Amino acid sequence: MKKIERQLMILKPTGGFSSCKNGIALRLHELGSTSTSAELSDACLKGDVYTAYLFLHSGEYSPAGQVTDGTLDATLPDIALSDIAGAALVRMDKQRPLFCLLSTGMDWTDTIARFLITHTPQTQEYPREPELSKPDPLPNTAQQLPPAPPTAPPPRIIHNEQSACDTCPHVQKQHPIDPFPAVFPGSKWVKISYPGPTGWWHYISGTIYKQGRTAKVLGVPGEYGMAPPIWLEGFGTYLRSAAGDARGYWLMFQDAETGEVMGMDLSPHGG
Length: 271
Prior knowledge:
Layout: E1 6-13, E2 24-32, E3 35-41, E4 50-56, E5 61-67, E6 71-76, E7 84-93, E8 96-103, H1 109-119, E9 173-177, E10 188-196, E11 199-210, E12 213-221, E13 237-240, E14 248-255, E15 261-262
Antiparallel strand pairs: 1-2, 1-8, 2-3, 3-6, 4-5, 4-7, 7-8, 9-10, 10-11, 11-12, 12-14, 13-14, 14-15
């Protein structure tokens, strides 16, 4: 008899979400080589409606169903248990996604940022990139295609959800920049540009060294305000950019070793 594989994920609260302080258990069961069931039940989740998402090792993510009355019981016929890297519960707050609980043992920095950019309508807080000239047509033979960039594009959503880049005619582009040379000397940054429904958008990713600490940083272009937009939870610092790609960026810092979101004791406007 074939052994049935099971996995238990502990989801921990994030971003000031005070309920379920001790976390909740998400039980995953293998139903076949390409199917999985997901179950959880906890009284602290009652009163709100959450959407459960499973995040895969490939960078894709898939909704696993709604958590209603504190309970989730879903069958996922197209997801293998071995493909699942992490899970999260997301709540819509004023029509924008708010991550409430995250599984442990996964680097969430890039994953959450790309999820928010994909699911959040673009407003004045996200300046649109100028239209770029169309790239030269790609060669017809697969052998002539250039290698894929080292940074993966925003993940493709499966189970009938579709990301902004699934149907666009261009591919993601990236190049190194130095947006904050006076604040983070010696740091390394890259600008990731990708086509959206109304033009080219971008975000930045970097590694900084400050006060003997190494941190990963993610930045979303926007305008300065007393507080970040509500959909940019965790992006608590605003710095003006010296690179000319945007007026400034809302930044989120994450400890390179522990993965925890951290503050860098910077003024909101970057001095």
